[in-house]
Amino acid sequence: MSTGRVTRQGVSIGEAAALYGLAPSTVRWWERQGVLDPPARVGGKRLYDEAGLRRLGLAYLCCVVGRMPLDQAAVVTSGKAALSTWQRTIDEQTELLELRIGQLEAALEYLRHLRLCEDDDIVRDCPVLESELSAHTPRGRAPGADLITAARAARGGGAWWEGTAVRDESPAEHPPGDEKPGGEVPVCCPGCRGPVVPSPRGRPRTYCSAACRQRAYRTRRSNTSDPAPEGPDRS
């Protein structure tokens, strides 16, 4: 267990993680994924100097603020990639975020439009639901004046939007999140992209730590982050 004492050479992993509101396990995960280089050790414990803390901060900016996948973040944080290389990596993530923003803006616009409906039961009462389905879902590409006829046409012609035939009652071979041959599919924290340790009981965990959960809550509330302190740290 770390004493939490600051030395002349640097600080412990718990203190380094706390500086950015992370769990120590997230810092270790980033190291294993190549986002961070393992720091020097003193007495078997990680020790982060000023440069190490700056690099950890850059990792936070890439992974948490910039929402970059870990392999892309590693290109930026490594300090080994050429200027043009890490800038190109950022450009790729920027293009992806712009695409997602466009999709989210379209979703928001449609939900605001849907909100204007004044029918108690949209399915039963809305006179424009059929036209909405034709305009905004693959139903619009299926021939047929009514939904039953269109469904039969879609089923008879296969999944024309994917080019594969549809089979009724065909369960997924390996549902998302289930164990697969060779080990479990890791669950990543949506806040920091670190690993989420499965809960031995109760509901599955979404975030790796209380800090990430609280940060996500504050972001939803005020679109700002205010990291919460972590518990005892371990090297």
Automatic annotation (TrEMBL):
Keyword Cell inner membrane: no
InterPro entries: DNA-bd_dom_put_sf (IPR009061), MerR-type_HTH_dom (IPR000551), MerR_fam (IPR047057)
Superkingdom as given in the UniProt entry: Bacteria
Signal peptide interval: none
Disordered: region residues: 168-187, 215-235
Start and end residues of each HTH merR-type domain: 12-56
CDD domains: HTH_MerR-like
Entries under SMART domains matching the protein: HTH_MERR (SM00422)
Keywords tagged on the record: DNA-binding, Repressor, Transcription, Transcription regulation
An example molecular function term from Gene Ontology annotations: DNA-binding transcription factor activity
Compositional bias annotation for Basic and acidic residues: 168-182
Protein's UniProt name: MerR family transcriptional regulator
Organism this protein belongs to: Streptomyces qinzhouensis
